[in-house]
Every structure is written in structure tokens, then in C-alpha cells.
Write a structure and sequence with these properties.
The chain is α+β, with helices and mostly antiparallel strands. It has five domains: 77 residues, no CATH class; 102 residues, Beta-Lactamase (2-Layer Sandwich), CATH 3.30.450.20; 171 residues, Beta-Lactamase, CATH 3.30.450.40; 110 residues, Beta-Lactamase (2-Layer Sandwich); 159 residues, Reverse transcriptase/Diguanylate cyclase domain (Alpha-Beta Plaits), CATH 3.30.70. Strands 2-1-5-4-3 form a five-stranded antiparallel sheet, sandwiched between helices. Strand 11 and strand 12 form a beta hairpin. It starts with a helix and ends in a 6-residue tail after the last strand.
Length: 650
């Protein structure tokens, strides 16, 4: 259409000189019935086309300004997505990828072009429970955010665990348009936690003198198949030191009935196995064509590494073979896992040979990342490993002879420690989380496992403690929890967390036969401020309002932002009508004071509805609904009011 207008305008401009010349040469004809209408028509057309062109130019100018403004507003968000140390994905409603940020490209190993346009199923490892996806789609189908864990797979085929937050994106008509996902790789934290749990389980079995095959099965079953893809087999040297007998193969049942392998006392076979198998693929020498490899091949294995198990005197005590399905060298985390598992197996084998538990523990855990401490029956330190010094700050000379309570913090009451010591006395072991204190006074969380060892007469000989600093894990859990439960703009609770808290409060109030009060707050005149000064200024106003509301609340009250300019306050502690009205009035007076930000003074008014449990409703949803209705009644009656619900609990 703009091209047609330009052509008509040019035609009219070209015709005008011809018309003028004709009038000069044929003056008498200027008043004829032919030229007068034609002249008027052309002049009108010229004026109309000129006006349309001017209007179009102004419209284009406004669009350019608006586009520039939108680009400026989107720039911080685009920068955040590009620089965030988290994977971010935008998909359509069918989970087809439309956008990935650079961190997602780096973590997955795929290029951006390999991801965009593909379905997110390509990133699944296939081990996430179907129930997880069912719950996810049900919640997203209700247009609610969802968070949970996925087992994903990168381009190389390696699996990793992710904490995922997903939210639906709606258009202006409220119709589902896209999904936004934020993902954090928590594989390392999960592996560390599983490693601690595996060590604790093995240590507990060791202190209880469990059979060696049971200890090996526990070590293998608790730390291998889900994440590492390693399939271990353990052989032990027979009593006569002539053969290697199968001791544990929980993941490869096809090798359970294999005959014993010949073994040389000087460990020649173990060294040969290690040299020939510690590379991708099977390339054994002719004398190693044994039925173990044949059974492993039949089970789909394509690579193998081996680790000899030596006793305290340096003689061969056993052999562990680590198989995997792919032809590839072990990655650094796999080597660490193999080393940790082999260390534990060495401990178990040496313990089974009736060596002292303390000597074995010190040998195996000397380079451990977890702290190991041995105390006498009275809790006095006898020895600690280097990790203990690294975590607590106490050197071995500073801690030996001190009581274990030197690590205690004031975060637990006496009853907590009484329960812990009581269980140690009755059961011989205790494990759990505890807040401890470093030498410099800093508090930190530990995951601790304590076990007693006994003398022949049944009295306690030693108390062995294994613990790890789980500060980073706690910080990651706290970050994920806050992202799921708190409003990112104001820092107060979000709708999800508020409803959970409200339901719990209703349950408690029902049991204690107490009242609850709920204030539903909506800001009047906020939209004009937002439209006039922009969303950035509007966001700062909402932050200021949230702070003002919280300053007027009691310690027992709970404030949340439902969305937009809507806030709710839960009044606990059995409030009556007068108390609720006083608090609402204080909030109203505070919110309606002038808000001065960045040289801009703004005024808001305040409409509030109040409902009570159990008078007006007995469920969280109904209680919010009643307060919402009362708030709209306040708006209808002129705004800047506080009105109590007139509804009744049915």
C-alpha cells in the first residue's frame, strides 16, 4: 500500500505542470465544465495523498521509538540469560526448543543449531521416572510453575543430574505460548552425597563385622550404576593363594558361575591385567582369554579397567575389574570414583583379614576428602586424618587429648546431644546432620557418622567418626528453595509458598481452636505510575511497598506477593476484629505516604479486604476468595478502604 501511495503522489505532482501550462495557453477554457472538476479532483487527491504520507511518517517514527524503548528494556534480561551460569531453555508448547543460552550449549556439548528446533526429549537419559514427567505436565497444564529433577544426557552420551525449574509463558490473552526452563547441574553434589552415604554404610558394616561379600555388594550397589555406568566385579585370593574366586558381581549376574582364575603369589597376573586392560576396548594377551571377558562381552561390555587389591604387607589380596558399555577412556570423575571404591574395598579386605580397624582406617582415609577422627570411650581425641585439620582448622597436635565437644556449636540444645549419646550407647552408632564450629569460630554444617568399636568384654574401645562439610550442598539447596518459594522482585514469599504456609496455619489453628485473619491488599493508582515512569520505576515502587507492609507486621504475621500489585498478609496468634483492623490501618497509612524514588514522588491508595478463619471459610482457597471479594467491595465503594468479608463459612 505505501508503494501505491508514492506512485499516485508522483503522478499527481507530474500532472500539475501540464495542467498549469494548459491553463496559460487556453485561458478561456479554465472556466469550462471540463477543466474545473478535473482541477478540483487533482488538488483534492494531492492534499489527501500528502496527508496520508505525513501520517505514515509519524506512525513509523512512533514505532521506531517504541522499538528502541523495548530493546532498552530487554537488554538487561538478554544479558542475564547470556551470562547466567545456569542452563536456560525456551520451548514451544510441544517442548520443541526455540532458544538456548550459551551455558546450556556448553553443558550439553551440542551446538546451538543442533538444539534449536529439536524436542527436549533428545536431552533425556531415559532414566528419569515416568511419574516425574506426569507430575510436571499436570502442573504445567494448570499453568503453574514446576520444579524437580531430571536425569539428562550430553552429546557424548554421559548422564548428569539436573535441578529444573519450569514456568509457562502466557500471551496477553492468557493463552499458553511457551515454556521457560532454568536448569542447574547438581551431579557433583549428588555424587558427593552418595559417596558419603556409601562410605557410611561400608563403615557401619565394617564396625559390625559383616561378611566381606556383603560389604562389597553394598559398596558396588550404592555408588555405581545410576550415574557412573561402571559395572564392577571383585575377585579375592583364595586361602591357599592359588586362585582368584569371585566375591561380588551384583550388576553382571552372567559371571556368577565362573570358574576360579589362576593367580601368582607375586602379583604378576594382577600387574599384567592392569597393563593390558587399562585402555579402551578388550586387547588382552593370549594367556588372558578367560571366561570373565567372554561373559562381560555377552552382557554388552566394551571397555575394562582393573585395580589390584593388596594387603597391608603388599601381597595380592584380590582384584577388581571395572567394566563399561562404551569404548572410551575413563573420565576424571570416573577415575576418582574407581579410586574411592577401590580404597574402600581395600579397607574391607584388610578388615576381613583381622587387621586392626584403626590402622586400616588411617591407611585408607589418609587422603580422603572426609574427616576421620578416632576417640576413646570418653570422647577424647586419639587421632585424626589430614581432612579433619582442613575442615575444622585444628591441627593434630592441637586436637589430640581434647574432648569431642570442642567442635560443638550453640545451635543445638542439650536434649539433642543427650539423644545422640544415648543412641551411641544403646545402638553403637549414630548418624545425622549437625552444626559444628571451626577453630576460628565459624559455624558450618556436617554430615556425621559415628560408630563404636568394642573390647572383648563388650566395653567401648574406640569411637570412629566420619564427617564431611556440606556447606556448599546446603547453599545450593537453599538457593533452589528460595527460587521456588520467594518472589524474585520483592524478596517476600510468593503465591506457592504462601498457600503452603496458609494450609499449615489452618491445620494448626483447627487443632488449637484459634482464629486466623487474612488481609488481601490491592494497590490503587499503581498502573498510571507504571505506565508513566516505566516498569523499572514501577518495580522499585513495589519493592518499597513490600518493605512498608512488612515493617507494620508482628513477628507472627506472614506477608506474600501474589503477583502484580496484589499482596496478602496472614495474621496468626488468634487475632480479633479490632487487631486485624488496626494492622490493616497501619499498613494503609504507611503505603499511602508519599513514595520518593529517583527524584519522582508518587502516591498510592490502598484497598483491602479481610476474611477470618473459621468464620468466613475453612480452606485456604475459600479464605483467600472471601478476602478478595471484600477487597473488590472496597474498590467499588470508592477505594482507599478496608472492608471485612460479609460471607459465612458453609
Amino acid at each position: 500500500m505505501p508503494r501505491v501511495i508514492r506512485h499516485l503522489l508522483l503522478a499527481a505532482l507530474a500532472f500539475l505542470p501540464l495542467l498549469a501550462a494548459s491553463l496559460l495557453l487556453h485561458g478561456p477554457l479554465a472556466h469550462s465544465a471540463v477543466w474545473m472538476p478535473l482541477t478540483a479532483l487533482l488538488a483534492s487527491l494531492l492534499i489527501l495523498l500528502t496527508a496520508l504520507n505525513i501520517r505514515r511518517q509519524r506512525h513509523l517514527t512512533r514505532l521506531l521509538k517504541l522499538t528502541g524503548s523495548l530493546e532498552d528494556r530487554l537488554l538487561p534480561f538478554r544479558t542475564a540469560m547470556q551470562q547466567a551460569p545456569l542452563s536456560m531453555i525456551i520451548t514451544d508448547t510441544q517442548a520443541n526448543i526455540q532458544y538456548v543460552n550459551p551455558f546450556m550449549v556448553q553443558r550439553s556439548g551440542y551446538t546451538e543449531s543442533e538444539l534449536v528446533g529439536k524436542n527436549t526429549r533428545m536431552l533425556s537419559s531415559g532414566t528419569t521416572p515416568p511419574e516425574t514427567y506426569r507430575q510436571m505436565w499436570e502442573q504445567l497444564g494448570r499453568l503453574q510453575a514446576w520444579n524437580g529433577r531430571f536425569s539428562s544426557r550430553d552429546k557424548s552420551g554421559r548422564s548428569y543430574l539436573e535441578q529444573v525449574w519450569m514456568a509457562p509463558v502466557l500471551d496477553v490473552d492468557g493463552k499458553l505460548r511457551q515454556f521457560v526452563s532454568i536448569k542447574q547441574d547438581i551431579s557433583e553434589q549428588q555424587r558427593n552425597l552418595e559417596h558419603i552415604q556409601m562410605q557410611n554404610s561400608a563403615l557401619e558394616l565394617l564396625t559390625n563385622n559383616a561378611p566381606l561379600p556383603q560389604i562389597l555388594d553394598t559398596i558396588f550397589a550404592s555408588s555405581t550404576l545410576d550415574h557412573s555406568g561402571l559395572y564392577p566385579i571383585a575377585f579375592l585370593v583364595s586361602t591357599d593363594k592359588q586362585n582368584l574366586h569371585l566375591a561380588s558381581a551384583p550388576a553382571l549376574p552372567g559371571v556368577r558361575e565362573l570358574a576360579a582364575l589362576p593367580v601368582l603369589v607375586d602379583s604378576t597376573l594382577a600387574r599384567t591385567l592392569t597393563q593390558s586392560l587399562s585402555r579402551p576396548g578388550f586387547n588382552p594377551s593370549p594367556d588372558l582369554q578367560n571366561p570373565v571377558h567372554a561373559a562381560a562381552r555377552a552382557s554388552g561390555m566394551h571397555s575394562c579397567w582393573s585395580e589390584p587389591i593388596l594387603d597391608s604387607a603388599g601381597f595380592l589380596a584380590g582384584l577388581v575389574l571395572y567394566y563399561r558399555t562404551s569404548k572410551s577412556l575413563p573420565a576424571s570423575d570416573e577415575l576418582q570414583l574407581i579410586g574411592n571404591m577401590t580404597d574402600l574395598i581395600r579397607l574391607a579386605v584388610q578388615r576381613s583379614q583381622n587387621l586392626a580397624l584403626l590402622q586400616l582406617a588411617e591407611t585408607v582415609y589418609h587422603n580422603s576428602n572426609e574427616a576421620l577422627a578416632v576417640n576413646d570411650a570418653n570422647g577424647v581425641f586419639i587421632t585424626v586424618n589430614p581432612a579433619f585439620t582442613r575442615i575444622t582448622g585444628f591441627s593434630q597436635t592441637e586436637i589430640i587429648g581434647k574432648d569431642f565437644s570442642i567442635l560443638y556449636s550453640d545451635q543445638h540444645d542439650e536434649a539433642f546431644f543427650e539423644r545422640m549419646h544415648s543412641r551411641l550407647e544403646k545402638k553403637g552408632r549414630w548418624k545425622g546432620e549437625i552444626w559444628a564450629r571451626r577453630k576460628n569460630g565459624e559455624l558450618y554444617p556436617q554430615f556425621v557418622s559415628m560408630s563404636n568399636t568394642y573390647n572383648a568384654d563388650g566395653s567401648v574401645r574406640f569411637r570412629v567418626s566420619l564427617f564431611a562439610d556440606i556447606s556448599q550442598q546446603k547453599a545450593n539447596e537453599e538457593q533452589i528453595w528460595r527460587q521456588a518459594n520467594f518472589d524474585s522482585l520483592t524478596g517476600i514469599a510468593n503465591r506457592r509458598f504462601f498457600i503452603t504456609h496458609l494450609e499449615h496455619a489452618i491445620h494448626t489453628a483447627t487443632r488449637q481452636q484459634q482464629r486466623l485473619g487474612l488481609l488481601f491488599i490491592d494497590l490503587d493508582k499503581f498502573k498510571p505510575i507504571n505506565d508513566r515512569y516505566g516498569h523499572r520505576h514501577g518495580d522499585r515502587v513495589l519493592q518499597e511497598v513490600a518493605q512498608r507492609i512488612q515493617k507494620q507486621l508482628r513477628e507472627a504475621d506472614f506477608c506474600a506477593r501474589l503477583g502484580g500489585d496484589e499482596f496478602v498478609v496472614l495474621l496468626e496468634g488468634n487475632p480479633d476484629m479490632d487487631a486485624a483492623m488496626r494492622i490493616a490501618q497501619r499498613i494503609k497509612d504507611s503505603v499511602e505516604e508519599v513514595i520518593a524514588l529517583d527524584g519522582i514522588e508518587s502516591r498510592l491508595s490502598f484497598s483491602c479486604g479481610i476474611s477470618f478463619f473459621p468464620e468466613h471459610a475453612n480452606t485456604a482457597e475459600k479464605l483467600i476468595h472471601e478476602a478478595d471479594n471484600a477487597m473488590y467491595q472496597a474498590k467499588r465503594e470508592g477505594r482507599s478502604q478496608v472492608i471485612v468479608s460479609a460471607g459465612q463459612n458453609e
